[in-house]
């Protein structure tokens, strides 16, 4: 059978990586786009559906492209994954769009959070792919995570108040809705039902 032939493994892995990237992109972006369209969308239903479709399509296709950029062949060195990430990140996510910006910010937050000291001991990652599937991430030490959360929220609140133009637009809209819009109402309807008059 072709799909079990080791000679085709690398090609099929690329195909499956593209498929998984596409499916994951749809699973993540579609519900987010629907919620954002309901909360902050403008225009009629048709224009909102087009925005949801475009955002979902871009997220799914970008992840599919990024995941499928594999070069297996030869022995993998430690820097290979970094170099592949740099090249793939530039080619696939380098264009500044709202979707790409959200994905990159998500990745940045995860990279920064990886530096939080972990609860327990750290061991080097195993060499075999089979052994890697049994490794579980060590959660952050609760004390350090609390400090990380405090600094993160302190920073975003300060940025929102003092330099709001520097915050990513989705975060800025959410912060505006939560903090600025909650101080404005003209009657019972705009206090309890509609956000703004």
TrEMBL record:
Protein's UniProt name: Peroxisomal membrane protein 4
InterPro entries: Pmp4 (IPR019531)
Species whose genome carries this gene: Gymnopus androsaceus JB14
One GO CC annotation: peroxisomal membrane
């Amino acid at each position: 059978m072709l799909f079990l032939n080791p000679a085709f493994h690398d090609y099929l892995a690329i195909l499956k990586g593209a498929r998984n990237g596409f499916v994951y992109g749809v699973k993540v972006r579609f519900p987010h786009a629907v919620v954002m369209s309901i909360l902050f969308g403008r225009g009629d239903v048709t224009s909102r559906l087009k925005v949801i479709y475009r955002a979902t399509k871009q997220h799914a296709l970008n992840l599919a492209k990024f995941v499928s950029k594999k070069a297996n062949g030869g022995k993998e060195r430690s820097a290979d994954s970094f170099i592949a990430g740099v090249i793939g990140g530039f080619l696939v996510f380098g264009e500044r769009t709202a979707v790409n910006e959200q994905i990159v910010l998500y990745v940045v937050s995860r990279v920064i959070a990886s530096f939080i000291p972990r609860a327990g001991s750290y061991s080097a990652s195993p060499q075999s792919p089979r052994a890697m599937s049994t490794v579980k991430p060590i959660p952050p030490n609760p004390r350090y995570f609390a400090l990380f959360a405090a600094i993160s929220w302190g920073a975003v609140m300060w940025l929102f108040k003092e330099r709001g133009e520097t915050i990513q637009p989705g975060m800025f809209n959410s912060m505006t809705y939560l903090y600025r819009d909650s101080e404005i109402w003209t009657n019972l309807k705009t206090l309890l039902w509609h956000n703004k008059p």
